Amino acid sequence: MDRRKFLASTVVSAVGASASVSMAQTPSAPSAREYYELRRYHVLSGPQRTLADSYFRDALVPALNRLNIKPVGVFNTSIGAEGPSCYVLMPAANAEILLTAEAHLADDAEYQKAAAPFLNAPARDPGFVRMESSLLYALEALPKMTPPPTTGPRFFELRTYESTTDQDHKRKVEMVNVGELPIFKKASFWPIFMGDTIIGGRQPNLTYMIGFPTLADRDKNWAAFFGSDEWKALSGNQRYAFEPLVANVDNEILAPAAYSQI
User: Fold this and answer.
1) Residue 62, helix vs strand vs coil
2) Same domain membership, residue 234 and residue 167
3) What is the pLDDT of residues 11-37, one digit of tens each?
4) Mind listing the pLDDT tens digit for each residue in 81-140?
5) With left for phi above 0 and alpha for psi between -120 and 50, is residue 46 left, alpha or beta?
6) Same domain flag for 202 and 230
7) Which domain holds residue 76?
8) SS3 label, residue 169
9) Domain holding 170: CATH number?
């Protein structure tokens, strides 16, 4: 058996078992919540970024769409501590689609042809510096991605909440599930996705993405969020206020690439 396919099938089994346990503890139907792969490519400005853009636009996104992974979001970091980066967000109805995607791409002649300049770039002039990937399971509050309007200006904020203990992480997930989503909507944010990290670094953590038309709107919306009576009541609830549930919040402001489907 091909090594990539063997590894993918092994991880699929492990993730499936984990999801089955999770489902046994929650009323959500197994097919109700999506999975997401979130990739971060560290890409240098100049020729490397041009090569990466061509790869995402002409090879990766179309090939993922053929695997029924869509819509695919591609975003560039506008404000963030990690340096120049590109994010690729891939939603799927189940984890197997995402975990076996690379094996399918290896057999996709159209993808291989379009991706050749990127995939075959020499070590002295690679298409990217590093790539990191996380697998996330959608939260019950937002079981499926909700893309924003595709016309007009739009920015996105990607936020990751890291907790010190698993208990604190579960309380934070519960907090988002039971009350935060309506507050985001009332504050005029566009909730794009909310996910619990299954595979990836800095666990336990949850990650979500929210959108807004302009940076000025972002500031106004956050002021409305934190100033709302609903947030004050939720954050003051002793179930969530007995100790700090979040040890660190990492956030970046992203702008969609011209060819992004989100």
Assistant:
1) helix
2) yes
3) 554 455 444 434 433 434 445 899 999
4) 666 899 999 999 999 999 999 999 999 999 999 999 999 999 999 999 999 999 999 999
5) left
6) yes
7) 31-136
8) helix
9) 3.30.70.100
Q: Supply 35's token pair.
A: 């999975």
86 plus 154 within the same structural domain = no
Total domains, the chain: 2
Unique residue bearing structure tokens 């992004």: 260
CB 177 within 8 A of CB 139: yes
CB-neighbour burial class of residue 24 (10 A; exposed 0-12, middle 13-18, buried 19+):
exposed
How many angstroms separate the CA atoms of 85 and 42, rounded?
5
Q: Are residues 104 and 83 in the same domain?
A: yes
pTM: 0.87
Cis status, amide bond into 30, omega within 30 of 0: no
Q: Which residue type is seen at 129?
A: V
Token pair 């999506």 is found at 34
Q: Identify the DSSP state of 168.
A: H
Largest CA distance in the chain: 58
Give the integer Cα–Cα distance in Å for 231 and 252.
22
At 165, give phi and psi (nearest 5°): -125, 160
